[in-house]
Write a structure and sequence with these properties.
The protein has about 240 residues and is α/β, with parallel strands linked by helices. Helix 4 links the parallel strand 5 and strand 6. The longest helix is centred in the last third of the chain and has 17 residues. The relative contact order is 0.18. The site of magnesium ion (MG) has 5 residues, from helix 1.
């Protein structure tokens, strides 16, 4: 039997730790060339990058994406880039490529508001209901909080889990990354069993039909345009 391939899409606000997650992948084949200058707030990844890693007999393709932004309209180029990457890397358009999706959130942001909430809404729109059993959240920055001060942050992690469950996100699994050895493998392994059957990520299915140029007409594209209009109304 051919060894199985798990393809994971990383989505989340800028600075939420997607590229750092990639850096920690076990058995990573490519080098992460982006510098990590430790600046939590500046945007860094501007192009999607597909990384390969092999662990436990499974090949993982991990798609690092540009971060989502507070300003809704700034997310359209992000969707365009993801759409183009999906289209470029597909082996066969009648078969989905992406088998799982992860939403990243910096736990130190506390509330799931602003870019966090907007990001989660875009994520929901991208994955679609049929894919809910193949998503999970990752929370980062735990190592910056003293263990005795973590309790309020645990509540936030539960809130995020409830958000996932509320929109039907499988078991609402949230991986709190605390810097422990083996925690990245745990995240990867979660998706191995879940990747067996064919399931379409909504955004991928739509791009298959519309072509990557049709990204604005996807559910996620429409959601971003709607949010951008609301944002403009609030400013006016
Ligand atoms: N201490 C600590 N720093 C982190 C953690 N996650 C991310 N960072 C740092 O925060 C900064 C932003 O992290 P990135 O991984 O580049 O964030 P990103 O989600 O890829 O951001 P974009 O590429 O803009 O979307 C980097 O300097 C990381 O080293 C974490 O869990 N702990
Ligand atoms: Mg990045």
């Amino acid at each position: 039997m051919a060894s199985m391939q798990v393809v994971l899409l990383l989505i989340g606000p800028t600075g939420s730790g997607k590229t750092r997650f990639v850096r920690r992948l076990p058995g990573l084949k490519e080098q992460v060339t982006e510098p990590d200058n430790g600046d939590v707030y500046g945007p860094r990844t501007s192009k999607c990058q597909v990384y390969t890693c092999e662990t436990g007999g499974t090949t993982f393709k991990v798609i690092d994406t540009p971060g989502l932004r507070d300003d809704a309209s700034a997310n359209l180029p992000v969707l365009r880039e993801i759409a183009a990457t999906l289209e470029r890397n597909w082996l066969n358009k009648s078969n989905p490529w992406v088998t799982g999706a992860l939403y990243f959130h910096r736990i130190t942001d506390r509330r799931i508001t602003g870019a966090g909430k907007l990001g989660l809404d875009i994520f929901k729109a991208m994955v679609g209901e049929g894919f809910y059993s193949r998503i999970a959240c990752v929370t980062t920055m735990w190592d910056t909080i003293k263990p005795e001060k973590r309790e309020p942050f645990m509540k936030l992690s539960n809130e995020l889990s409830n958000e996932l469950v509320n929109f039907g996100g499988g078991d609402g699994l949230v991986f709190d990354l605390k810097g422990h050895k083996g925690e990245i493998e745990t995240v990867l392994n979660y998706f191995v069993a879940r990747s067996r059957n064919r399931r379409w990520l909504e955004f991928e299915r739509e791009i298959g039909q519309l072509g990557s140029g049709g990204y604005r007409r996807t559910v996620a594209g429409k959601e971003v345009v709607r949010k951008a209009k609301i944002g403009l109304c609030v400013i006016l």
